[in-house]
Amino acid sequence: MVERQLRGRGIExxxxxxxxxxxxxxxxxxxxxxxDAYRDGAVYIGEGQTMSQPWIVACMTSLLELKGDERVLEVxxxxxxxxxxxxxxxxxVVTIERHAALAERAREALEELxxxxxxxxxxxxxxxxxxxxxxxGISVTAAATGEPPRxxxxxxxxxxxxxxxxxxxHGEDLMRFREGRAERVVPVRxxxxxxxxxxxxxxxx
Length: 205
Hints:
The structure is a single chain. The chain is built from seven helices and ten strands. Strand 1 and strand 2 (49-51) form a beta hairpin. It is globular and about 40 Å long. Helix 2 (14-22) runs antiparallel to helix 3. The chain has helices spanning 2-6, 14-22, 54-63, 81-87, 100-112, 150-153, 196-203, and strands spanning 43-46, 49-51, 71-75, 92-97, 118-122, 137-140, 144-145, 162-168, 171-178, 181-187. The chain has one domain (2-203): Vaccinia Virus protein VP39 (Rossmann fold, 3-Layer(aba) Sandwich), CATH 3.40.50. Strands 3, 4, 5, 6, 7, 8, 9 and 10 form an eight-stranded mixed β-sheet that branches. A two-stranded antiparallel ribbon has the order 1-2.
């Protein structure tokens, strides 16, 4: 996986590559899905969510340009695999998942692997974690519309990057935001970022 899917497609960040090599992707899936763990594609994990393909996880991690001493925020825990990879690249990870069942399974997998520098929270990730800010990097694994939530941008440490897929009129792109600059990286397709207030409005209809 690392040589063919990652190095072979331009991933050069050695910290991210080492993490991808060390973290057992199958441990974040049920045993009956282990055969799909390293395939070059996303894997469905329930609740309308997927485990991103390996290249996307490596790309998003490398775009943060982590040095190892940062606290990183991840919005959208999913299976917990991305948080596991991030935990090998930085000092601490705070990851937020809106689906309680997914958060619990991710927490169990991370604990079983001994990744004790990851805090898993259940809630609206669009609001971030202001009590733990500022963050030396923020990774958003769901697509924002137009631009990332202002609350997340405000929780970045000076010079830190926020990586997020963004939907616009012509499609969806993975973007990196840093110090007022927006960089388009690659076309992608993610589930939408849904703030809690959107859920409340839907329930009220």
